[in-house]
Inverse folding.
């Protein structure tokens, strides 16, 4: 026998107290940050690799990478690979500390190198430094708030 749906829905909505709040899922925020950083690194790396073989003018030409060597291309390929790993890690329910550490360490390395050699690049490097600082802080805060929130629930 089939029950009427309207009666059940009305009964359950009245039973929910007004003090119920929805908790923030910090793991979802961490997955979002990992996905954004991974997509950014993947697009940046692939764009610069494509620019190596085909002259593709774009937003990354402001770095003035005229002196392209094998070392520069390896760094660009590694950036694309790290972006792929971070993008794949965002599909996990709970990205672990290794993926988060990879993203944080990469952002920190780009901050240090960008700050050290900022005179060689154009003034656009400050925008890149800002983006990397945002990624580093977002990964750090999202990971540790998710871990602390998990431990409080136990």
């Amino acid at each position: 026998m089939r029950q009427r749906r309207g009666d059940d829905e009305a009964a359950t909505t009245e039973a929910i107290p007004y003090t119920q709040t929805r908790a923030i899922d910090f793991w979802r925020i961490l997955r979002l940050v990992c996905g954004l950083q991974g997509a950014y690194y993947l697009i940046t790396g692939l764009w610069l690799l494509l620019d190596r073989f085909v002259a593709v003018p774009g937003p990354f030409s402001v770095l003035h990478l005229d002196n392209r060597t094998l070392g520069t291309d390896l760094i660009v390929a590694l950036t694309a690979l790290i972006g792929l790993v971070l993008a794949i890690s965002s599909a996990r329910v709970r990205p672990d500390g290794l993926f988060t550490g990879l993203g944080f360490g990469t952002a920190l390395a780009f901050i240090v190198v960008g700050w050290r050699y900022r005179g060689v690049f154009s003034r656009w490097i400050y925008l890149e430094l800002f983006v990397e600082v945002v990624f580093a802080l977002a990964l750090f805060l999202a990971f540790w708030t998710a871990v602390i929130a998990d431990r409080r629930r136990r």
Notes: The helical segments are 5-15, 26-53, 70-89, 97-116, 125-153. Residues 26-153 form one domain. The chain has a mean pLDDT of 80. The two ends are 41 Å apart (CA to CA).
